[in-house]
Amino acid sequence: MPNTARTGFGTLFRRGATIIGEIQGIDGLNRNRATFDASHTGMTDPYKEFIGGLVDAGEVSFQMHFTRDANQILLEGDMESPTPVTYSVQFSTSPTQTCTFLGLVTEMTVTSPIEDKMTYDVSIKLSGKPTWS
């Protein structure tokens, strides 16, 4: 079977239809489900039993070159707003896979090292269920 692995080269991050450029890498889409202990005295084995709760869609984080361009200023505006915004990640797969979600910018950090490029780290908390297409 041929290898179908791909690098992240060519992956795009969008705010609505606007591509946010100069991103160095994207992490996240890390879903997790809450669990609740449902153990009881009538169990036949001494192992805890659990039931599932709500799913947390997680976060998306990325590091980009710090440029203070119009698109970075858009993200800064999103940080100031309590209203979720539509974002998407278009992966460089074949065929292309895109994850679209509502999210709130929760963290923005500028790093300015003396012997490296300046960067902007951004974290976005997903709100609701993401869709894949």
Please provide a written account of the structure:
This protein has one helix and nine strands. With 133 residues, it is mostly beta strands. The protein has a single domain (12-30, 57-132), classed as Hcp1-like (Pnp Oxidase, Chain A, Roll). 13% of the residues are buried. The mean pLDDT is 95.
Arrangement of strands in the largest sheet: 2-1-7-8-9-6-3
* Silhouette: extended
> Can you count the beta strands?
9
Strand content: over 45%
What is the CA-CA span between the terminal residues? 25 Å
CATH architecture: Roll
The share of residues in helices is under 10%
The CATH fourth-level homologous superfamily: Hcp1-like
Give helix and strand order, one letter per element, not per position. EEEEEEHEEE
Number of structurally distinct domains: 1
CATH topology: Pnp Oxidase, Chain A
CATH top level assignment = Mainly Beta
Calculate Rg over CA atoms: 19 Å
**Helical stretch count?**
1
Determine the mean pLDDT: 95
Largest β-sheet summary? 7 strands, antiparallel
Are there runs of 5+ residues with pLDDT below 50, and where? none
Structural class: mainly beta
Secondary structure layout plus pairing:
Blueprint: E1 12-15, E2 18-20, E3 23-28, E4 32-37, E5 50-56, E6 59-65, H1 70-80, E7 85-91, E8 97-111, E9 119-132
Antiparallel strand pairs: 1-2, 1-7, 3-6, 4-5, 6-9, 7-8, 8-9
Which short descriptors sum up this protein?
133 residues; mainly beta; Pnp Oxidase, Chain A; seven-stranded antiparallel beta sheet; two-stranded antiparallel sheet; 1 helix; 9 strands
